[in-house]
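pasting input
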Amino acid sequence: MSFCTWTEVREGLLSSSTVPRNPVDNWENVRDLWVADVERLVSDTESWAHHQGWGTLRELKAITEDRIGTYTVPRLLIHDLFGRLLVDPYARFVAGGDGLVDLCVIPSWDSEMIIKEGEGWFLLQDDAEGPRQPWTESIFVEAVHRLARSQ
Amino acid sequence: MTRREHYILRITGAHKEYQAAEVAVTLLMDKVRADPSFLAPVDLRSRVATQLRENLENTYVVRLYSEFEAGLRDAWKNAWGRTSEPPTRDLLDSAAARRGINQDVLDFAHRVRVFRNELIHRKGDEVEPVTIGIASKRLCEFFGRLPKDW
């Protein structure tokens, strides 16, 4: 029996990717940069969760966008006694930002938004006109507790 | 039920009403084919049944979009506390920017808006038609990202 590496699984899924319906200039590069950004965000968040002693599980999510086609990114399940949360990539092209990942609590699916602006990620508790905080370990931990309490 | 759920049910409800109406129109067409004077007791010609069938989906696209827009205006006023009454195009853009809505979903919502405007105002502009099934799915996706309740 042989096992695939994470990269092989991703490349296997990407091989079935479609050409975008409405591609932006240099769409493959834009897509790859976005995938790399999401992978970094998920890795950082995963290690912050481990610092807290929380369990995590990764799985792949396929996303299709008209401008950059189909691609796969990791999503991260975080669990402990407080419950379960999902770091769930949404889209590269969103209104009001340069990419968006949801932080959802299960089972209510109440969520906060982790929005990319320029080179940085920011947490929005309500909407884009509300307060935004840079995505750091302490902001992540606060958000997890806040969402867990909202259940 | 939250306000968001309420409006999503209104949108999907309009789609379901269309599906029921489609069945009803098919039955009506069968009757009219069998008896061309079937509608005479209500002073209508059989041609009206054909027109009804041809216009049914677009009629319900207008209905479905009106449910979506009503919900969006309710959110604008009561979730976000805004007192202005922006044109629908700006309302869609602003709501999408507040909630980080997928650009594909926003683009499609504009497509439904433009199609609906052409159906209502008949300016003769060339617009891409929209089917009610996809309109329902995409507008619910848009609405599903609004605040949960207000």
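fyi The radius of gyration of chain B is 18 Å.
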